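new request in #modeling-help
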Amino acid sequence: MNINLTLIGQSIAFAIFVWFCVKYVWPPITAAMEARQKKIADGLSAADRASLDLELAQEKAAQQMQQAKEEAAVLIDQANKRAAQIVEASKDDARKEGEKLIEQARAEIQQERVQARDALRTEVALLAIAGAEKILETSVDAKAHSEMLDKLAAQL
Amino acid sequence: MADTPVEYIKHHLQNLTYGKLDAGYERFDGSVMSESGWTFARTAQEAADMGFMAIHVDTLGWSIAMGVLFLGLFRFVAKRVTTGVPGGLQNLVEVTVEFIENLVKDGFHARNPLIAPLALTIFVWILLMNVLKLIPVDYIPTIAHAMGLEYFKIVPTTDPNATFGMSIGVFLLIIFYSLKIKGVTGFAKELGMQPFNHWALIPVNLVLEILVLIVKPISLALRLFGNMYAGEVVFILIALLPLWAQWTLNVPWAIFHILVIPLQAFIFTMLTIVYLAAAHEDH
């Protein structure tokens, strides 16, 4: 309980300990702690950035997907239209071809009819002359009556 | 050792003193010092008669040992410190450092790189010195006695020399920073013009403020010393009880001291920060 030199010794020891702590203990430990804090903060912000990037990428991907879908729809639409056009055109062609054929057939039929009628007419004229000769018992001068015969043939 | 309870208590409260005895001093065994010289005190009377020219070897030895333990441990960690995932020891050290850092951040707003390490030193050193108290009161003195040392008190903070040694260090820092931050005139003004801001009351102010200033280290030292000393006395008293009764009191008292030990270290640290913060405040 006596106050003595211990007091001074203790003060000196205290001063030395504080000096040592200030110089060799405190700075490296706090520096490391600060460095770690910074590291953690950096890591957190990096994670934030990464999640933001991910979000952006997803958005972009969705956009591209949408665009592709739209393009595909346009293409399909065009193809459908084109197909319809082709079908329509071929239908048209077929109809025209058919009409042409029908026309040709009609023309041929007409021609044949005309020919047949002509042939018939000639024959009928001959038959009429022959009949008339039988009735008259004389030959008919074809030359003399050709005008009348032609009239007759034309009436048939 | 000691026979009666009073002697036992006195014995346990006596430091191992190495001091100077004058020529002609009559030793405990009747021999007379032929010339003045340094020696270990064999009785409390001899220790008292040595006066100021003596040192408490146990106090200094244990406090320096604890200081070296503290700095060695922290330096060991500081050298191996990693910014990655810290190990157990580094964690412990970092928790302590962070605790002190927060205390200083909350209580001390000026910029001074000395304050935080100072607070750390005070806190851990006092904590370690106080922890020695949990060693049963007879262990170390018995070993010391076997080695031929008459007295041995291992808890440095139960010696006012130790606590005053630290508080005087803090006091010098208070004076130093008061003068450095406020200047001689600023500091004088603070002492003379507060709390009554009138020239006629300067003497009253001076008396009050100087008293306030001087009370700071005394209260710091006496609070720590008083708590530790009283606790130690109670431990010694408990040790006087019959063996079967000791643990019923010793265990609760020791558990209570698990609270008191860090609390006293914390109070000393906190008040040091507060006093130094006040010294840095420029009005």
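bot summary: The first helix of chain A runs from residue 6 to 136.
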